[in-house]
Design goal:
By secondary structure, the chain is α+β, with helices and mostly antiparallel strands. It has a single domain, classed as Factor Xa Inhibitor. Helices cover about 35% and strands about 15% of the residues. Strands 1-2-3 form a 3-stranded antiparallel β-sheet. A hairpin with a 5-residue loop joins β1 and β2.
Length: about 70
């Protein structure tokens, strides 16, 4: 049986914490920043933890060999 492959799009979009939680970048910062408020831009930096229900979906479907 051949190895299952990790989805290459998921590799670029998600990272794992040491405890196995999934992080993703905040949406809405690619273009059109002049429309958005300073508070939104400030809070949309860095990475955010994915919800628990979405974490199960991401791990099961996109990362077959993750924790």
């Amino acid at each position: 049986m051949p190895k299952m492959k990790t989805k290459s799009g998921a590799k670029k979009r998600f990272r794992f914490t040491g405890t196995g939680k999934v992080k993703h970048g905040v949406a809405g910062k690619r273009h059109g920043m002049s429309k958005r408020g300073n508070r939104f831009l400030r809070q949309a930096t860095g990475m955010v933890i994915v919800s628990e229900s979405d974490t199960r979906i991401i791990k099961r479907n996109f990362f077959p060999y993750e924790r």
